[in-house]
Amino acid sequence: MTISLKPNNSSPEKLQPTGWLKYLSFSLDHKVIGLQYLVCGFLFYLIGGSLAGAIRVELISPLSDFMPREVYNQVLTLHGTIMIFLWIVPVVNGAFGNYLIPFYVGARDMAFPRLNAVAFWLIPPSGLMLITSYFINGAAQSGWTAYPPLSITTPAAGQIIWILSVLLLGGSSIFGGINFIATILKLRRPGLKLMQLPMYCWAMLGTSILVVLSTPVLAGTLILLSFDIVAHTGFFNPSLGGNVIVYQHLFWFYSHPAVYIMVLPAFGLVSEILPIHSRKPLFGYTTMVFSIMGIVVLGLVVWAHHMFTSGTPPWMRLFFTIATAFIAVPTGIKFFNWVATLWGGKISLNAAMLFSCGFIINFVLGGITGVALAQVPFDVHVHDTYFVVAHFHYIVYGGSVFVIFSSIYHWFPKFTGKMLNENLGRFHFIITFIGFNLCFAPQHWLGLNGMPRRVAEYDPQFQLINQISSVGALLMALSTLPFLWNILQSTLYGEEAGDNPWNALTPEWLTSSPPPVENWDGEAPLVLEPYGYGKKDSNETQEAIR
Amino acid sequence: MTSIVPKEQSSESRNDLSTEEHEDFRLFGLVAFLIADGMTFAGFFAAYLTFKAVNPIAPDAIYELELPLPTLNTILLLVSSFTFHRAGKFLEKNESKQCQKWLLITGALGVAFLISQMFEYFTLPFGLTDNLFASTFYALTGFHGLHVTLGSIMIMIIWWQTRVPSGRVNNQNKFPFEAVELYWHFVDGIWVVLFIILYLL
Q1: How many interface pairs between A and B have CB atoms less than 8 angstroms apart?
Q2: Facing residue for A181 by CB, picked from B32, B40, B131
Q3: B78-137 residues touching A, CB cutoff 8 A
Q4: A27 neighbourhood in chain B, CB within 8 Å
Q5: How far apart are the first and last CA of chain A?
Q6: pTM of the predicted model, to two decimals?
Q7: Quick one: which of A428, A58, A383, A96 has its CA closest to A262?
Q8: What are phi and psi of A68, to 5 degrees?
Q9: Helix, coil or strand: residue A385
Q10: Cα–chain-centroid distance for residue A320?
Q11: Residue of chain B whose Cα is closest to the Cα of A106
């Protein structure tokens, strides 16, 4: 045992503000940074959600009457960019990763605490910059993909601010990824093997590999794009000899893996939540690990399936169809393992569990339409229609956001030491689930019948379906109210949670709630079987809990 | 703060690690960063090669890129990698004067590279916005030049920090030195790839 756990009196934390003020300061504590990510991300979720609401209001009637088309395009672009770069990616990676990973590897903090704090503090300014661009000279109008030549020909100011802010956010996520890789691989407590880590560590390792390999390519691409806008070079400008397809290749080399950057951590979080609330070991740990790594490898080689209609040659279509369809294999393995974990378990249907089950249902639906979209003939038919919108939202909202809520219900007692109100939580789940499906399921139909996405005006035959969809969006908006009320009420007056309200075996529950500054007052517990529920040869930690 | 603790432990990490372990994972983080940086270059290279493959007018069809200056640049950078390595050997033996001398040579080679590249820019017959290949050429070499500039500045900082007795970098605290050395070798390696792709292919 080489780790000596002496109290470190020189910790910079001691010099910093305590109480709630510490969440507004440049703190180095991974738990504080994690919650900063979470709260900041949630504020951006509210903004992005309001923008989505504006879009749904506009689409209630076929004519463009709620806002002008330029504004519609700006709202659309801001909605996509905020939700992806400021809500889901920072929260599933930054928030829960920072909070949980040091506990899971048995460390007192992340490998590079300062880099970690810098990575967080890049987010609020770039987010604000992005939003204020709307009020200055008009925000970017070319969608979150910023395809040239559209992004070159629309007004430059908003587009440049968009590029700058995405570059900063990309830098933030690269710093975070480096930190996670170093923490998981190098800071593990002696005696803890890689194959004994909780599944979320594996998910974050895979995600961070994707971040480190693909985000810099996006950064380089956006730098070239900004040269096109500012210096009038011709990289992606066909009138100057440039090639827009190259932009699409480079862009999707990041942005396809970005889907896994949003979803893999969610897989990891679900794998933590399901065993605890069904009191069963995680089914097929080893296959789960290999399927994550399989998804990482395959995720890097399927980007061109976004470009089937961009004049890709047949051999390329064939390769990317097959590679994309293959991703269904590791994903399917994970799905069946979750179901097998639930099978015969002592399931408690609390809010965390409900949201996780909702995730499984939504993700299967989104996955199935994903396999369908991988097939070239079908993709050519529904390309750039609402079918794609529905598929994408089933993956990122039905997948990642459901898991974020599930995780908040699950880890809230650890964050604050208070329990959330379960009945309000179940109510929140029911409205969200109904609202979500009411909003996005009809959009499959819209897409199959040919309603294009990203338009403010549409054929009147689609009006009824769009109205149903808007009602669903209204329900989703309303569903945040019981959630916010629950958070406020429980933080102030909630019942005391105790250290381990779920009787869990994973390491973060083996310290007090909320945890002390350096995670454990004494030595870090060595948890070799984080999912050892109901096993006879339980290790010491388990006996201590029972 | 009055308590006396090793500097890195108090400021950089609150994880209780020995100095060697500490250095080990910090270099590991740096390698991860360099992989990310390398991917940026990979994206640029991929873009350049695709432009060249897709567009019928290749750069060498319009312009014959002069080889003498870039070849000289390649030699400058390769030699500077070697001199940096020499400096590291002397740092290990704690011969600070020798180490500083070799660092100074390395930094001078880096600056010589930048001057030579600037000279090349002035002699080139095309400007940034002339055509696609001119743009890609300047984007690639310029981005690499930015790396060399940053590296040269860091070498000068390291050189300043290896002074005895007041400097912070010595054979007890080698991490800053090793980090810059790794970065410099990486930048040199990228140049070799860039030289082959841009000038020789």
Answers
A1: 149
A2: B32
A3: 128-129, 131-132, 135-136
A4: none
A5: 26
A6: 0.91
A7: A96
A8: -65, 160
A9: strand
A10: 24
A11: B15
Q: What is the CA radius of gyration of chain B?
A: 20
Long-range contacts of A494-502 (CB under 8 A, 24+ apart): A494/A416, A494/A418, A494/A419, A494/A420, A494/A421, A495/A418, A495/A419, A496/A417, A496/A418, A496/A419, A497/A413, A497/A414, A497/A416, A497/A417, A497/A418, A497/A419, A498/A413, A500/A545, A501/A413, A501/A419, A502/A276, A502/A277, A502/A410, A502/A413
Contacts of B35 in chain A (CB under 8 A): 212-213
> For the residues of B80-92, what is the DSSP string, one character each?
HHHHHHHHHHHHH
Mean model confidence pLDDT for chain A: 90
| ipTM for the complex shown | 0.88
Q: Do B10 and A249 touch (CB under 8 A)?
A: no
B182: tokens are: 């790794």
Contact B16 A8 (CB under 8 A): yes
Shortest CA gap B46–chain A (Å): 8
Residue carrying structure tokens 């779920």: A502
Band (pLDDT 50/70/90 cuts) for residue A9 is very low
Do the Cβ atoms of A231 and B24 come within 8 Å? no
- What local confidence, expressed as pLDDT, does residue B186 receive? 96
Please name the residues between 89 and 148 in chain A that touch chain B, using a CB distance below 8 Å. Answer: 107-109, 111-115
Residue B200 touches partner A, C-beta closer than 8 Å: no
Using a CB–CB cutoff of 8 Å, tell me whether B166 touches chain A. Answer: no
Candidates A309, A160, A297; CA nearest to A227 is A160
Judged by phi (left if over 0) then psi (alpha if -120 to 50, else beta), residue A469 lies in alpha
User: Pick from A437, A321, A414, A475: which is nearest to A100 by CA?
Assistant: A414
Choose the closest CB to B16 out of A3, A241, A250: A3
SS3 A496: strand
Q: What share of chain A has pLDDT > 70, as a percent? A: 95
Both tokens of A229, joined, read 């806008």
DSSP-derived letter for residue B129 is T
3-state secondary structure of A142: coil
Nearest-CA distance from A8 to chain B in Å? 7
- Which of B5, B50, B51 is the closest to A10 by Cβ? B5
* pLDDT tens by residue, A131-178: 999 998 889 999 999 999 899 998 899 999 999 999 999 999 999 999
Cα B135 from Cα B147, distance rounded (Å): 18
Q: Which of A185, A172, A363 is nearest to A266 (CA)?
A: A363
